[in-house]
Amino acid sequence: MSDTDLLYTLEDGIARITLNRPDAANALTPDQRNRLIELFETASGDLNVRVVVLTAAGKHFCTGADLRVSRIPDAPRPADAPERSMGDVGRNIKRGAQRLVSSIIDCEKPVIAAVNGTAAGIGAHIALACDLIVAADTARFIEVFVRRGITPDGGGAYLLPRMIGLAKAKELIFLGDDLASTDAERIGLINRVVPRDDLESAANEWAERLAKAPTKAISLSKWLLNRSLDSNRQGAFEDEAWAQDLASTTEDFKEGVAAFIERREVQFRGW
User: Fold this and answer.
1) 43-49: which pairs have CB atoms within 8 A and are 24 or more residues apart?
2) What is the reported pTM?
3) Helix (H, G, I), strand (E, B) or coil at 52
4) How far is residue 192's CA from residue 51's CA, in Å, rounded to a whole number?
5) What is the tens place of the pLDDT at every residue in 229-262?
6) Minimal CA–CA distance to 41: which of 99, 87, 122?
7) What distance lies between CA 44 and its chain's CA centroid?
8) Which of 35-49, 70-84, 141-155, 194-208 has the lowest mean pLDDT?
9) What are the residues facing 9 on neighbouring strands?
10) In sequence order, what are the residues at sequence separation of 6 or more whose Cβ sits closer than 8 angstroms to the Cβ of residue 126?
11) Which domains does the chain have, with CATH numbers?
């Protein structure tokens, strides 16, 4: 991977990750994927990071895995064994696309996707794994897998029904049609659509607010919300009580209470 294929900056608590292979429609290589996983996992424990913004350069967000370079890693096998055996593809998905999507969902910091253009396949799923999604009015989301005669990977069949319901998820996955960003907003798949020229400022507005927020409380709230989708009421209430207990031990909680009592502006630090 070239040093310029994936750009990373950190300033004022905002980590910015930019996919930067516009000539390849920002199709994702294995090296980029692995680097993204590393960045999201590192962001979780880095107190300098308060929020992560994921975006891309050029006219496309990410058009999926780069099939020209994506391949299943070689593994020792008998001389007369087939080039690919049962389990190879599944193992590759678990170690690759699923790890990437999980690294975004499980990141302890809020993640904003600024979708500048086409998000297809795993490109759509890394956007949908983010906590907040702002898209340009020119962006499209495509469950492209059916066009290639294959099933979704990267958590698509897990994420979509939870975000838009089973019937609409089946429509997108079975038909593989382009979904305009305005329609994605209408069905609740994304948060906001803005003119292409306003995308960066719209994402920055949210990022700057979250960079000043009580980071640990946001992290615990994200954990609660994600778990609630697979939980019952009793489990969700237990989680809620535990999260509230943890949040009450943070310095930001103490600051929030003190600022309220002293009637002054709150200054959260992120711990």
Assistant:
1) 43/15, 43/107, 43/108, 43/109, 44/106, 44/107, 44/108, 44/109, 45/108, 46/15, 47/270, 47/271, 48/10, 48/13, 49/10, 49/13, 49/15, 49/109
2) 0.92
3) strand
4) 18
5) 999 999 999 999 999 999 999 999 999 999 999 9
6) 99
7) 13
8) 70-84
9) 16
10) 36, 54, 62, 100, 101, 104, 113, 119, 154
11) 6-211 (3.90.226.10), 215-262 (1.10.12)
Exposed / middle / buried, residue 232 (Cβ in 10 Å: 0-12, 13-18, 19+): exposed
The amino acid at residue 90 is: G
DSSP, collapsed to helix, strand or coil, labels residue 17 as strand
The half-sphere exposure of 8 on its side-chain side, counting CA atoms within 13 A, is 13
Tens digits of residue pLDDT in 49-90: 999 999 999 999 999 998 887 566 667 778 877 877 778 788
- Are the C-beta atoms of 63 and 27 separated by less than 8 Å? yes
- DSSP sequence for 167-224: HHHHHHHHH--EEEHHHHHHTTSSSEEE-GGGHHHHHHHHHHHHHTS-HHHHHHHHHH
DSSP type of residue 245: H
Kindly give the pairing relationship between strand 140-142 and strand 118-120.
Answer: parallel
Rounded-to-integer distance, Cα 152 and Cα 246, Å = 37
CB distance 28 to 61 below 8 Å: no
Instruction: Check residue 73 and report its DSSP letter.
Output: P
Are 271 and 240 in contact by the 8 Å Cβ rule? The answer is: no
